[in-house]
């Protein structure tokens, strides 16, 4: 049986390694993914500070061949679905390791414990700063956007679509009472996050806040974007529907994170709205500085035409909600998109 010092040193050594490794993963994303020299330098400084506390006696206590933890794994560790997931997993890894270091260092060196506590707070701040970039990158990586319509099988349809590879869902419900909307939004938000997908609430900022959704989508008659951002807090996405160049200009001035462009074809979802056709797609390509989603009557059969007109992302309702197999519908539509994504600006 090992003595107490040996056990303590091994715990400290393992978590110093864990924290330094995780910070390096985050640093590489800040450097090459975001091209943010300030965040890269912050990660490097944290790594160097941890290295200062990684004393030789701690390293010498390492016993990798006899460490039972090297055999432990979890299925979620084997696969990362996208770049933001990699970064988020390592942020959690660093935060957990720093907490372990803080607690056990109270026995080893109280100055080290205090330093690890301050580093943990710095990583929390870094996490908050990266959240907007994470969500925006997830948005850029999601060419297909499901806007839900009322359904008795809503949860089942959304989960089937997520199983097909869908990464962006908007909950749109105009008729149900608030209690029902809140309950459904909570369920769908948990479900989307289980599949590493973004969850957006249509119109209702209060519900988006209540369920900790990734953002809100606003129509032209809804609340101003400034108020929406104030209510949602930092790091959340705010989208805006547009049907003409004037509405797009408003969204640009508001600095919307993304916009809807349509209706491309006539659709019962927007009854009475004239189709804007492919011309508005071409206009968006020339004038929209943010990602946009072509929307309105788009389905598997006409998706190719929309992509040929220049759209890179589309939003659909009936093409998934009314599909015999939402999973297959998503898979078939995703196959038509070029397999590329842009880095977050």
From TrEMBL:
Q: Where does 4-amino-2-methyl-5-(diphosphooxymethyl)pyrimidine bind?
A: 170-174, 202, 241, 270
SUPFAM superfamilies reported for this sequence: Thiamin phosphate synthase
Per the record, GO CC terms? cytoplasm
Gene3D superfamilies hit by this protein? Aldolase class I
Q: Name one GO biological process term.
A: thiamine diphosphate biosynthetic process
Which positions in this protein are listed as binding 2-[(2R,5Z)-2-carboxy-4-methylthiazol-5(2H)-ylidene]ethyl phosphate?
267-269, 297
Return the annotated region ranges for Thiamine-phosphate synthase: 123-345
Cofactor: binding comment: Binds 1 Mg(2+) ion per subunit.
Task: Tell me yes or no: is Nucleotide-binding among this UniProt entry's keywords.
Answer: no
Residues reported in the UniProt entry to bind Mg(2+): 203, 222
Spell out the protein name for this chain.
Thiamine-phosphate synthase
